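Protein in question quoted in full.
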Amino acid sequence: MSLLAPVPAPTDADKRRAAPVVIAYQVDKLPPIDTGFYERVRSNLTKIDEVIVPPRDGRSFEVPAGHVFRILSVEGPQVGDLNLWNAKDLKERFFSGKTRQLHATHVTTGNKLWSNMPYLRPMATITHDTLGWYGFDKDGGGIHDVIGTRCDPYTNGMLTGTSYDCYCHSNLTRALMKGRGLSAAEAEPHVHDVMNVFMCTGFTRDTGQYFMKASPVRPGDFIEFFAEIDLLGGLSACPGGDCGSSKSGDAAACYPLKVEVLRPDPAALKGWSSPPRAGYAGNHGLK
């Protein structure tokens, strides 16, 4: 039998496929989102910083705990790859896989971005999303995914035999180098799987392959986050532009992205504090 020959289905295949769906992570015991708190935070914001991310490049930015940041489309349809770190400890960083398990493949208002283990706590909460209307389209595509990893020169070289230095992985590496005064060798290991801001993605229904399609983002659209801890962010304006073509690179139309950092009225933060690290003692069965 050929290595790639299809395996014949057993006689009870339909019965096996009919097993009921079980949601893997029951999140009803997580604290419910305090909509009143976040609405108060949003009601009176003062911009204190702004960063422009040039096309096919990356920039870093800092957001103090208890502040808000927005990623905005400013000139044309453009997607961005977002990394987040604890500004005081780069070992704590955004964990896309756990965020996906706790929320969904695509995130929007009310969802949180979680950090890696052993920290495992909310780093940021999405407080507004002008593309929240999109939902899932007929192809199964949604916006702001936490499933794609980031375009990178390693995969590109493996698949095409060519070299290109402006993929999001490299852009984020340079952004972190500049933001923290690190060498490339020091910065690159801290670059991690991203939130694909504004990107429209899904999985094909027949082959289960990750796909992208032109983003619906337009100038004026933005996604907004509340920083639950002190954050260092890295954002790449993807060389794929709106990711409506088959390849990232110099051919796609690309536009800048803007990051705004905003300070709320201090009165709105009364009684609030950053979430603690996960409570697990770290025994791992050793004691």
